[in-house]
Design a protein that fits this description.
The chain is 51% helix and 3% strand. The chain contains ten helices and three strands. The protein is elongated. The protein has a three-stranded antiparallel beta sheet, covered by helices on one side. It is mostly helical. The longest helix has 40 residues.
């Protein structure tokens, strides 16, 4: 379980008050999804390792009304008793309010990343299509009279063909050759690949995600990048909150890998 702590906790009316601040932070971590901390002061102290006296004084301070608090709920009290007939068990008054803010912020970050990925895919698709079309060297069809002449003289050609010249290579073929390189000894064949290391790393990451980790074949470079991102288990089970960092770690390691 984890909780997002807002910086305002240190700038509000708890500013400079050590005991209620540290106890409140501990309760945020120990709270259930609804903001309840159904524990005694002794249990809280034992869980977090604080002296019991500090926990009790912190709880007492957090239960007091605070007219200077940003939150008017419960007269500014940070915590209230779950049951007025017992001396333990509390509810954090504004827990659900800040939890919604955290969820909304994470959702916004997720959609921001998805839009960025869509723009990158669209740009890559356009670039690959343009590069492929630009590199097609087929001449326009000859006039009909010339076609008839060629049919009568099939062995004659107007332009000699140099079969020793290497074929031109598109971004797609360069990347395909990179992934299809010899895996038996971990060596990649040299290719005339116009993709930058960063763009190739991004393509490899997306292919890895789209195929569930089955493609491309794992060589030393790919395994190095997977390990740098925390392993395949972490990549495949990534949350919205950490997806961007995992992708950055993978791509950085893949692009900088020394072949």
């Amino acid at each position: 379980m984890y909780v997002k702590v807002f910086r305002t906790i240190f700038d509000g009316s708890l500013y400079g008050k050590f005991e209620p601040t540290v106890v409140f932070l501990a309760m945020l971590v120990l709270a259930e999804r609804n903001g309840n901390v159904d524990m005694t002061a002794e249990a809280i102290a034992a869980r977090v390792g604080y002296p019991l006296a500090i926990v009790k004084r912190g709880l007492e301070e957090l239960e007091k009304p605070d007219p200077a608090s940003r939150s008017p709920e419960e007269e500014g009290r940070r915590i209230i008793r779950l049951d007025e007939h017992r001396a333990w068990g509390w509810k954090i008054t504004n827990y659900e309010k800040y939890d919604k803010i955290r969820t909304a912020a994470e959702r916004q970050e997720y959609f921001k990343l998805k839009k960025r990925e869509q723009r990158a895919k669209s740009k890559l698709s356009t670039n690959v299509h343009t590069a492929t079309v630009d590199k097609l060297d087929s001449p326009p069809c000859p006039p009909l009279q010339h076609q008839h002449h060629l049919q009568q003289n099939p062995k004659r050609a107007d332009t000699p063909v140099d079969k020793s010249a290497p074929a031109q290579q598109t971004e797609e073929s360069g990347f395909a050759n990179e992934l299809a390189a010899d895996k038996s000894n971990g060596q990649r064949q040299p290719v005339n690949d116009p993709l930058t290391p960063e763009r190739r790393a991004d393509l490899v990451y997306r292919m890895l995600i789209d195929t569930g980790g089955t493609s491309p074949p794992r060589d030393a470079r790919l395994q190095h990048a997977i390990d740098a991102a925390g392993g395949w288990s972490r990549i495949s089970q990534r949350t919205e909150y950490e997806a961007g960092k995992i992708q950055r770690d993978f791509c950085h390691a893949y692009a900088k890998y020394a072949s």
